[in-house]
Amino acid sequence: MSETLPEKGLPIGTQVLTPTGHVAVETLAPGALVLAISGVAAPFQAVVATRRLQWAGPMVRLRAEALDDGAPQEDLLLPPDHAILVDGALIPAGLLVDGHGFIEEPAGAPVELVEITLAGHDAVLAAGTAVETAHPEPEIPDCVPRRAPDATLRAMLSWRAERLGWAGPIAAAPDEPEIGSLRDRLEASPLTNALPLAPPVGDRGGPD
After folding, report:
1. What is the rounded CA–CA span in Å between residue 86 and residue 144?
2. Beta-carbon neighbour count of residue 198 at 10 Å?
């Protein structure tokens, strides 16, 4: 019976930030300190365990600076279910695929991953990008909420892709022609039917 494929882990060679600088993820060992940035625990935490895994599924490539200046510092590969910490939420990399800054790469030869475990669920900086660590126990809750990307984040990523030359300009909504008179514009407004009708001119007096 084959082993279940892992869902999370950093490829060999990925640089992780520690108090003394960046080190390759495969050099981390229990007791090594890393910078944990979720804000739910101390900023420097000791690695409790690491585990090497073989991943034979698709990967998501985060192109350098797809999220922000220096995030990531260089292309970063993640399994689709490995979440990124963005704006106080964990978002799986696979949900950010847009064909520009986040590119799905089909399964190929197995990739060796390293899974980092801290005392609690948290996020570390890998190639300048905040990515989640493993859960030390299944019942340990996520360090922050997990969600899908919202419209604001997608718009920001589209803007970066355009700015970095990966995508064409975002099409703007065509301007609607302005109707001539104020009355015409009011009658064309979708709010008009929700407004109370004003009495006709010349009939504003009291009852006869």
Report:
1. 10
2. 7
- Give the full edge-to-edge strand order of the sheet including 111-117: 10-11, 111-117, 49-55
pTM, full prediction: 0.78
Structure tokens at 78: 């993640």
Q: Give residue 111's identity as a one-letter amino acid code.
A: V
CB of 32 within 8 A of CB of 57? no
Minimal CA–CA distance to 142: which of 93, 84, 102?
84
Work out the burial of residue 29: count CB atoms within 10 Å of its CB; fewer than 13 is exposed, 13-18 middle, 19 or more buried.
Answer: exposed
What average pLDDT does range 83-104 have in this prediction?
97
Give the mean pLDDT of the chain: 85
CB 118 within 8 A of CB 48: yes
Give the separation between CA 130 and CA 72, rounded to whole angstroms.
9
Tokens standing for residue 175:
């301007």
Sequential DSSP letters for 142-182: PSS-B----HHHHHHHHHHHHHTTSSPPPPPPPPPPPPSSH
- The whole-number average pLDDT for the span 63-79 is 97
3-state secondary structure at position 25: helix
Q: For residue 7, what pLDDT is reported?
A: 77
Q: Is 152 exposed, middle or buried (0-12, 13-18, 19+ CB in 10 A)?
A: exposed
